[in-house]
Design a protein that fits this description.
There is one protein chain. Strands 1, 2, 3, 4, 5, 6, 7 and 8 form an eight-stranded mixed β-sheet that branches. The chain is α+β, with helices and mostly antiparallel strands. It is globular, with a radius of gyration of 17 Å. It has two domains: 136 residues, Diaminopimelate Epimerase, Chain A, domain 1 (Roll); 48 residues, no CATH class. The longest helix is centred in the middle third of the chain and has 14 residues. Helix content is 25%, strand content 27%.
């Protein structure tokens, strides 16, 4: 990226977790799928270094890049860039992207409810927003690309005390539709879910 380039970024957060959204000024990276485009960003590092490092960024910031969807069901695709990762899906970032889409009018609000799909590198995300008087609340943003069977969910929850590397070593993970997504990024501490 050259100095003097103009990138249009809308500031956003989900419960304080910064997840700004690039809505203009960056061409979609090469790739036949959103996953391939995300992997290109990982290898290239130019966009990540420009928006996530000082003086524009820091360890507190995620930046999402809107790209044309590859799946015709989705209103847009997006690629998540975090300081140390380019994950296939992120709940807080899907909420942030949805918020920016609705607030900027990229997605038109319909009362009483607006529903649409986003395409993350890991698959489709269903979004539901309650809309009233030109305001909205995102009530649901859930991935439909990651379906976890109850026995898999129990195994993941039972290993929540282990760090992600140990969980990957002991459990392993392979996305059902993309063998390139093969790691557990985060472990969650939780009470039994069953």
């Amino acid at each position: 990226m050259k100095a003097g380039m103009t990138i249009e970024i809308v500031g956003c957060h989900a419960e304080g977790e910064v997840g700004d959204v690039i809505i203009g000024g960056v061409e979609p990276p090469p790739g036949e799928t959103i996953w391939e485009q995300a992997q290109w960003i990982v290898k290239d590092q130019t966009l990540r270094n420009f928006v996530l490092n000082e003086p524009r960024g820091g360890v507190f910031r995620h930046v999402n890049l809107l790209v044309p969807a590859k799946d015709p069901q989705a209103v847009t695709g997006w690629i998540i860039t975090e300081p140390e990762d380019t994950p296939p899906m992120s709940g807080s970032n899907s909420i942030g992207v949805s918020t920016v889409l609705l607030e900027t009018g990229i997605v038109t609000m319909r009362e009483p409810e607006t529903r649409f799909k986003l395409e993350a590198p890991g698959g489709l995300v269903d979004v539901t927003a309650e809309c009233r008087d030109d305001t909205f609340v995102i009530v649901d943003a859930q991935s439909v690309g990651f379906e976890i069977r109850p026995d898999e969910a129990r195994a993941i929850c039972e290993t929540g005390i282990k760090i992600a590397a140990a969980a990957n070593e002991q459990l392993g993970f392979t996305h059902p539709g993309n063998a390139g997504i093969s790691q557990i990024s985060f472990c969650q501490f939780t009470n039994p879910v069953f």
